[in-house]
Amino acid sequence: MEAITHIPEKGSKKRIVIIGGGFAGLQMAKKTDSRYFQIVLIDKVNYYQFQPLMYQVATGGLEPSSIAYPLRKIFRKKKDFHFRTCLAKRVFPEKKRLETSIGSLQYDYLVIATGCDTNYFGNDRLKESTYALKSISESLLARNRILLSFEKAVSVHTEEEFEELMTFVIVGGGATGVELAGALADMKKMVLPKDYPELDFNRMRIYLVDASPRLLSGMSEESSAKAAETLKKRGVIIHQDVFVKSYEKPFVELSTGEKIRSQNVFWVGGIKANSLAGMSDESYNRGRIAVDEYNAVNGYDGIYAIGDTCLMISDHAPKGHPQVAQVAMQMAENLARNLNRDMRGSSVKERFVYKDKGSLATIGRNAAVADIWKLHFGGIAAWWLWLWVHILSIVGMKNKLSVFVDWVWNYITYDVSLRLLIRPTMNTIYDSEEPTD
Length: 437
Prior knowledge:
Blueprint: E1 14-19, H1 23-31, E2 37-43, E3 47-49, H2 54-58, E4 68-70, H3 71-74, E5 81-85, E6 88-92, E7 97-100, E8 103-106, E9 109-112, E10 116-118, H4 125-129, H5 136-153, H6 159-165, E11 167-171, H7 175-195, E12 205-210, H8 221-233, E13 236-240, E14 244-248, E15 251-254, E16 259-261, E17 264-267, E18 271-273, E19 284-285, E20 288-291, E21 303-305, E22 310-312, H9 325-343, E23 359-364, E24 367-372, E25 375-378, H10 380-393, H11 397-413
Parallel strand pairs: 1-2, 1-9, 2-5, 9-21, 11-12, 11-17, 12-13, 20-22
Antiparallel strand pairs: 3-4, 6-7, 7-8, 10-18, 14-15, 15-16, 19-20, 23-24, 24-25
């Protein structure tokens, strides 16, 4: 395969190729010193996506552009930085070459930051019949599904059709599942009755199905209990320690034998690391790339993995680290520091030790839970903290202001203004060979 064009020779510098422009890849590219490295970042889309707020795009609270930012614009002022929109296909470690959908690329250092995708636990049919929230395009598809259900519900002729359109099943009790359930509950109470006065929203059902014994299993038991209590008060029907056996439209069958009639099933119940062809099976542990305490991939020279896609077993983390944004960013910063030091001639290498800054999850208007060190609290104080932390985390001042204005407007008016049902017209002009999100 021919080399990727228009990337200049690296000269005396080392070339570092980063696969993935998410939390880990973005931070890695930012912190790597251009005086020593030529940086090549590749991703299947040309923008950074702020994943924690995708559920708000799905429920009409935010514009997609508010939580996305062009990667080229982020690094406009960074010297010797190059970006390509493509798919990473295979690595040839012995040749230090990466094969992509647009050509091959030689590297000195390869950083795999490919993140995770939705885990359907072997039931691939669910991928075609349920809605995920791992990308902006999936969030828009989910938004269309939600809005289309109400548009159809005003014109149905049978009780069965009405029931399945007005019933929403969320599979997964992690942060995304809890936040989506809370957002739908807020819409049911404050927004949708004004848009659809013909519909009886007392008959709208929101189910949250979680295979774990408690919601938000990565947070404290106090926060889990508070989240469940708040959602129940807002009308969400919770099934805990229950899993989905199958979904044959329109019936969701649970492990208890119960069947729920619904056209709206959102699968946010698990994640699996994205792999990269070309490395041996021994490079993986529990489906994630096995790395040492410096994020180097076991058994390979010059290949590193950071973020959700890797598994680091250490004294500090005997079971590995949680697959969250803070871990990804801290790994990237640590690896960049080590590589920068190495190029300056320093032999000092710093092992990665995760510094937990706490966890937050919102449950809807004026409600959230927080675990900050040994403090566990909920309510409006946790909600305000959640708001400010997420605004500060968004890339781009315009995006921060846009999100802030939307949230203030929504809070004052008890409304979300982005309920637009926009679907692309199918056209042969779209190239099926282009990377898809």
